[in-house]
Amino acid sequence: MAADTRDDPITLVxxxxxxxxxxxxxxxxxxxxxxxxxxxxxxxxxxxxxxKTTAVRCLLNLFPFEGxxxxxxxxxxxxxxxxxxxxGFVPQELSFHxxxxxxxxxxxxxxxxxVPDGFDFEPLLEQVHLTPHVKKRIGELSGGLKQRLxxxxxxLSDPPILVLDEPTASLDIxxxxxxxxxxxxxxxxxxxxxxxxxxxxxVTALADRVLLLEGGRLVVDSPPDxxxxxxxxxxxxxxxxxxxxxxxxxQTLEGLGMPVSRNGRGIRVHAAPGNKGKVLxxxxxxxxxxxxxxxx
Amino acid sequence: MDFENVLILIQxxxxxxxxxxxxxLYAIAFTALSLxxxxxxxxxxxxxxxxxxxxxxxxxxxxxxxxxxxxxxxxGAMSVAGEREKGTLVxxxxxxxxxxELLLGKFVGLSLALTAALVIGFGxxxxxxxxxxxxxxFMVYLTLLVLSILLAVASLxxxxxxxxxxxxxxxxxxxxxxxxxxxxxxxDLGLMGxxxxxxxxxxxxxxxxxxxxxxxxxxxxxxDLRDNLEVLGPAGIYAxxxxxxxxxPLLIGLLFSWVLVxxxxxxxxxxxxxxx
Lengths: 296, 276
Hints:
The complex is a heterodimer of chains A (296) and B (276).
Chain A: E1 12-23, E2 26-37, E3 41-45, H1 52-59, E4 66-71, E5 74-75, H2 80-85, E6 87-90, H3 102-112, H4 122-127, H5 143-155, E7 161-165, H6 173-188, E8 192-197, H7 200-206, E9 209-214, E10 217-222, H8 227-231, E11 235-240, H9 243-255, E12 260-263, E13 266-271, H10 276-285, E14 292-295
Parallel strand pairs in A: 3-8, 3-9, 6-7, 7-8
Antiparallel strand pairs in A: 1-2, 1-4, 4-5, 9-10, 11-13, 11-14, 12-13
Chain B: H1 3-17, H2 21-48, H3 52-86, H4 88-93, H5 99-131, H6 138-165, H7 169-185, H8 189-198, H9 202-210, H10 213-226, H11 234-243, H12 247-273
């Protein structure tokens, strides 16, 4: 599926045209085209092996590829160093040198990124909650702390673009929530983001647009709230109702043609994409009190 | 080429090398063996009347021929492939640096680390000889240090080439050890055996020696020590007669070629292999 190329070229931060990458006979990315506007958060979503990481690495020109990638008006092949100065990268595999401390790591990458002498690291460390760990060696850090360090390194030169490869893959649920909160605040501050993920909740929490990849090809380009509709997914709603409300609720929803059945303390409804709210609204309008609900 | 980036990478490589247990082990082993060699050489100097520096230098040549290429080859082999395997290479090259800057920084950093290890080994040995009051030609000793550094960097360059071309550090180190065995074997026993079996003439024997950087080092070191190559037999005598005054620059030029050519090939191999 080709991206809409009629956007104003000035607002386009990332332009990917016919990106193709082969590893031997295996095609990891197949004729992928899309654009990302300034301040937009775009998710590359798909199963393992869908080509997400390969596409991300191509953005950084980490290996040869076919097609064209232009970032902030620069060709990534011809101006790869300049392009990388515009990008903060958070990798999937946290590959720091284990014998360096957090402080040494930050200073090393700050020098490579030409961060001016006298740069105050404190606000950055505070932002990613790393201040208490600054003297620790990398080998002593948990996955969550390493991920925050990777984000701190990515933000060192305050780049306008963040490229994140499965940024929460190695995190537990709590660390993932904290990390997503950090990313949302960065998005609000105006950063353009492109990130790969196979977690739907991560994609819906952060992305303005979702690019679904399958077998290296772009299958769907959609805002996250229209994803279910575009994919034709059906959601099961479990509604917990008072005993006297169950029978009227069954009759009301059956009357609207919705597949519904009794389920323990309430009812189970199969809702078409975009119809979950309608189920709740209809019951409320019929005077049936919904005590609680869960989505499957 | 941004030389500031190269300098940052050199500093990091030096720091890493001095925390690398293999590097420390090699450096300590070389220093300990050099000191032991000097001790025995100088202890016997009184009874045989041989100068300390000259006698130690002669003994050191064989030690250097074994240990220095092993240091260079294995450290070079671990460098790029090790970072590739750990994933640090992908992360480094996602920063605003070029692959040429990365390779040059790593190579120069490791070269300086090897130089430091040799300077410490030679330095302590020199102090021991001087402390024991034994004389000799200090310049010959110093020249041997420079030749050893060249051999170390040439070996590093070969290890680097292997490392740039393969994916796993273990494969790279295995290949480097195999190459070390070949180079050492074709130094003495291999050359002697080949010349006897193949009945090759002295000219071909010299050509065979000159394609092996270890032999080039040996010829240069003996020339440094004796001002002729008679001690190396017919091939040595032939080399000295055939090349005369040009032999020394030829040998140094060959050692430099062993530094530059594998490194140039390593950059090409890296371009082809990439970060994965």
